[in-house]
């Protein structure tokens, strides 16, 4: 079981879009992924076709508030992969556990107890803030995937996030293996190439070769509760996420971390 957190402290960078379409691509490759929606807004749950998901506390909120096993909270999506959905009840978790230092390890414990035997890759979609929920995701993860849109403010944001992860590594005495993927790339704009080159200069091979182009299908498909492969399988967005998934698979990003 490899656990991947998809995270960026800046909103609007394609975090949920990336989580949604990676899950769909992995499912098409018979890897049977499981997604955890840790954003109280529940955008991943809605985009995956679960229209009623955010109206109840039966998803991740039930895990944190009622200790309900994750395996009992799994729901099938129309695309064939599974998800533990989100709801607004998750917004209360920071207030509920904010002063409890042990709260940050709840998800790691839950995954090892409930989902470890599935062997499925786990994708975690986080809200754009570093709180109890995101710390749970990071401590439970093997790796972190950081979507960065091709604009100046997003470039500055990834530097701040990288610094925050470095501080956490020292504090928690563990490494966060990470990859950066450039999203909302517009080949008509010189700035997009400049942002990609600056990221490559600073982070080297941590930056994915695949770039996710600005694409109408990627923006529209969540409105229909579908991933881009179900909504527009021949679109540039589908081709980009298929290529990104293949790149990450070939690099071992979805392989379970070997204990040393």
Structure summarized in a few sentences:
With 260 residues, this protein is of the alpha/beta class. The protein has one domain (3-249): P-loop containing nucleotide triphosphate hydrolases (Rossmann fold), CATH 3.40.50.
Write the layout of secondary structure elements.
Layout (H helix, E strand, L loop, with lengths): L2 E4 L8 H14 L5 E5 L4 H5 L12 H7 L8 E2 L5 E3 L8 H5 L8 H9 L7 E5 L5 H9 L2 E7 L2 H21 L4 E7 L6 H14 L12 H5 L7 H4 L4 H15 L10
Helix pairs in contact: 1-11, 5-6
Number of helices: 11
Question: How many β strands by DSSP?
Answer: 7
| CATH class (first level) name | Alpha Beta
Query: What is the spatial order of strands in the main beta sheet?
Result: 3-4-2-5-1-6-7
Instruction: Return residue spans where pLDDT drops below 50 for at least 5 consecutive residues.
Output: none
Number of domains: 1
């Amino acid at each position: 079981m490899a656990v991947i957190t998809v995270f960026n402290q800046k909103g609007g960078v394609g975090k949920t879009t990336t989580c949604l379409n990676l899950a769909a691509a992995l499912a098409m490759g018979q890897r049977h992924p499981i997604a955890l929606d840790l954003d109280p807004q529940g955008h991943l749950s809605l985009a995956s076709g679960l229209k009623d998901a955010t109206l109840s506390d039966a998803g991740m909120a039930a895990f944190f508030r009622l200790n309900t096993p994750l395996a009992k909270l799994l729901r099938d999506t129309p695309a064939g992969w599974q998800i533990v959905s989100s709801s607004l009840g998750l917004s209360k978790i920071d207030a509920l556990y904010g002063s409890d230092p042990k709260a940050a390890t709840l998800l790691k414990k839950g995954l090892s107890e409930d989902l470890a035997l599935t062997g499925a890759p786990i994708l975690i979609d986080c809200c754009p803030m570093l709180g109890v929920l995101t710390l749970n995701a990071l401590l439970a993860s093997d790796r972190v995937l950081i979507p960065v849109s091709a604009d100046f403010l997003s470039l500055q944001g990834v530097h701040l996030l990288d610094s925050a992860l470095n501080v956490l590594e020292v504090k928690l005495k563990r490494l966060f293996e990470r990859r950066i993927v450039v999203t909302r790339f517009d080949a008509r704009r010189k700035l997009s190439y400049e942002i990609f080159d600056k990221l490559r200069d600073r982070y080297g091979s941590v930056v994915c070769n695949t770039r996710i182009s600005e694409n109408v299908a990627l923006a529209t498909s969540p409105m229909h509760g579908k991933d881009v492969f179900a909504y527009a399988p021949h679109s540039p967005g589908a081709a980009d996420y298929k290529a990104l998934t293949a790149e990450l698979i070939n690099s071992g990003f979805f392989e379970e971390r070997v204990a040393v």
